[in-house]
């Protein structure tokens, strides 16, 4: 057992150990100073600037821009609350000033999605038909490194169809500074099951990822990581509402975690802390296209049957619409080509 653990540690951390070893050798010998100076004299490559700029762009600047955009929405809501003196419940009330203000924020997010990702939604008529029948429904989706497709779909739905979606989020999100106000304004939920059942019976739309943060941080090649989770199926079965599968093409080409941070050691760290302790990179302007599948009826089915059908439906969407799911770099180049050439 100890040998297996040592092998896992070596596999996951040898790049960092080897890098520290090389830098330590350089510290005492000055080898890289000599090599880089020679490369610069020969005008081959400014290696230091190349490495530093690449790291800054991929791991700091682009992810930070997305976080800044989220916090601009948070700040706007705080300014509104300070001005109005209270935050109203606007999830279903079109006549409130805050609902109109939320629509303005949604419009800004929709513009961002369209300009940066040429965002599209395919199959939303499946949701509209159920809403016209005054039926609640549950959208079940594959969780990318960031759920930016949920942000975009919610905003797109608000702007184009005046249909709000109520995302189910991990409880720790309500503890992120400033986020509670944003989550409350958009009707986000975190449980318990009885509350989700009540919302669905009222005819609202709940959007949930069974994989959650675990899938976001550790999924490789668009693999679904549900474990034994079936709470969503129990809720849908109890509320007697259909499940609609969803997948967004290229969502992991936009943002992702390095594969080296998806191994067993980091997985155990997450299971112990329940915190997303990892290093995010991305922010690429790739083509994003959300696919909404056919509704799955839950009446007369067991929880296991509902769970299995939902998982198979999402896997089917991934197989049909995700190009190069097993090669991240080819997928990135193809998604950029989709965005700027096609």
Automatic annotation (TrEMBL):
Q: Where is it found, in Gene Ontology cellular component terms?
A: membrane
Q: Where are the transmembrane segments?
A: 13-36, 56-80
A single Pfam family, by name? Acyltransferase
Q: What is this protein called?
A: Phospholipid/glycerol acyltransferase domain-containing protein
Q: Which GO terms describe its molecular function?
A: acyltransferase activity
| InterPro entries, A to Z | Plipid/glycerol_acylTrfase
Q: Does the keyword Protein biosynthesis apply?
A: no
Q: Does the keyword Membrane apply?
A: yes
Note the superkingdom of the native organism.
Eukaryota
Q: Which residues form the Phospholipid/glycerol acyltransferase domain?
A: 132-246
């Amino acid at each position: 057992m100890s040998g297996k653990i040592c092998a896992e540690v070596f596999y996951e951390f040898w790049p960092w150990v080897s890098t520290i070893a090389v830098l330590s050798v350089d510290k005492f010998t000055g080898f890289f100073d000599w090599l880089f100076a020679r490369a610069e004299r020969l005008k081959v490559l400014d290696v230091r600037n190349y490495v530093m700029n690449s790291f800054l762009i991929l791991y700091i600047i682009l992810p930070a821009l997305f976080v800044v955009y989220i916090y601009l929405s948070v700040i706007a809501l705080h300014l509104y609350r300070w001005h109005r003196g209270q935050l109203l419940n606007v999830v279903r009330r079109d006549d409130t000033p805050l609902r109109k203000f939320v629509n303005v924020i949604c419009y800004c997010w929709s513009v961002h999605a369209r300009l940066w990702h040429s965002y599209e939604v395919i199959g939303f008529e499946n949701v509209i038909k159920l809403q016209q029948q005054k039926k609640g429904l549950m959208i079940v989706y594959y969780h990318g490194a960031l759920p930016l497709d949920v942000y975009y779909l919610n905003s797109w739905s608000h702007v184009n169809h005046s249909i709000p979606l109520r995302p189910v989020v991990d409880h720790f999100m309500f503890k992120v500074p400033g986020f509670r106000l944003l989550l409350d304004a958009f009707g986000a939920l975190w449980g318990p099951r009885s509350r989700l059942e009540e919302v669905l019976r009222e005819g609202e739309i709940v959007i949930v990822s069974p994989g959650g943060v675990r899938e976001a941080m550790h999924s490789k090649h668009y693999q679904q990581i549900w474990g034994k989770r079936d709470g969503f199926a129990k809720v849908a079965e109890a509320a007697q509402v259909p499940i609609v599968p969803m997948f967004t093409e290229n969502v992991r080409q936009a943002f992702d975690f390095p594969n080296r941070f998806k191994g067993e050691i980091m997985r155990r760290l997450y299971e112990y802390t329940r915190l997303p302790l990892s290093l995010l990179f991305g922010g690429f302007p790739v083509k994003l296209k959300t696919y909404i599948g056919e509704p799955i009826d839950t009446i007369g089915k067991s929880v296991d049957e509902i769970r299995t059908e939902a998982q198979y439906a999402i896997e089917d969407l991934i197989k049909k619409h995700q190009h190069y799911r097993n090669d991240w770099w080819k997928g990135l180049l193809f998604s950029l080509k989709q965005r700027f050439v096609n």
